[in-house]
Amino acid sequence: MGRAQRTSYILDRLAAEGEVSVNVLAEELDVSPVTIRTTLKDLEDEGHLVRTHGGARPTAYRNIRLRQSDRIEDKERIARAAAEMVRDDDRIMIEAGTTCALVVKHLTGRRGVQVVTNSLLVFQNARPNPHIRVTLTGGSFHAETESLVGPVTERSINDFNARLVFLGTDGFSVERGLTTQLAEGGHVGSLMRGRTEETWLLSDSSKFGRAGFVSFMGIEDVTGIITDGDLPEESIKELTERTQLRIV
Which residues form the HTH deoR-type domain (predicted)? Predict the structure, then answer.
């Protein structure tokens, strides 16, 4: 396969899946990882993608509704584990994110739970449950994340106090902490942390080692991380030295 065909294949995979892995592409295209890395660098220089740890993502971030099905089984397990932390009559905040949006779906049987969120997906998933009271912050609508951000959102968050907050991320690492593509979204997460007793990051392991545009919180600033079991042993050790880690 020539460079033009290889390039076309990679861009098609990016459009369909939103992320590609160097090792997977090397195996599928029957070339060396070095060849794939060189091709990804060329495509990044041409503005077609952004390289990440072990792969690449598109320069244009996919709408959150297109990302909902990515690693859905891992996300469901993580969300279920987070929901188990919620008590009757609890007060929680949930920030925008595909995994965070699933938490309320697993609150069946809880009574009197009050949720403050800037996520329209959280609101949508909570609507069928009459025992959850949802307060949706105001703010400016951001279509790619189905979230509300900006000064109105920030003022609204500062009116509430909660026991738990569940945060999402576009990438996290020991060095860069929690990161996001949307600066305003990162500010929302930081404000929610300041209004709650415990801060939990919900993220599948594919986001470890990746970095979004903005770092908005250190690993040491979260109470704990709930993730799946695909993290390397060395990474698990690094994270557990700095925060609680729950692997589901």
Answer: 3-58
Query: Which helix (H) or strand (E) element contains residue 35?
Result: helix 33-45
Asked whether the beta carbons of 220 and 130 are under 8 A apart, the reply is no
Q: Would you state the CATH architecture of domain 71-247?
A: 3-Layer(aba) Sandwich (3.40)
Q: Which residues does residue 127 pair with via DSSP β-bridges, in sequence order?
A: none
| Residue 61 pLDDT > 90 | no
pTM for this predicted structure: 0.77
Q: What whole-number distance in Å separates Cα of residue 10 and Cα of residue 24?
A: 11
- Residue 171: φ, ψ to 5°: 170, 145
Q: For residue 163, give the H/E element and its range.
A: strand 162-167
Angle at which helix 33-45 crosses helix 3-17, to 10 degrees, equals 80
The residue to which tokens 């020991």 are assigned = 174
Helix ranges (DSSP H) in 117-247: 120-126, 151-157, 183-194, 233-240
Domain layout of the chain by residue ranges: 3-58, 71-247
Nearest to 54 by CA among 235, 186, 192: 235
Find all residues with CB under 8 Å of 146, minimum gap 6, and list them: 63, 64, 65, 96, 119, 120, 121
Distance CA 32, CA 28 (A): 10
**pLDDT (tens digit, 9 = 90+) per residue, 90-119?**
999 999 999 999 999 999 999 999 999 999
* Fold annotation for 3-58: Arc Repressor Mutant, subunit A (1.10.10)
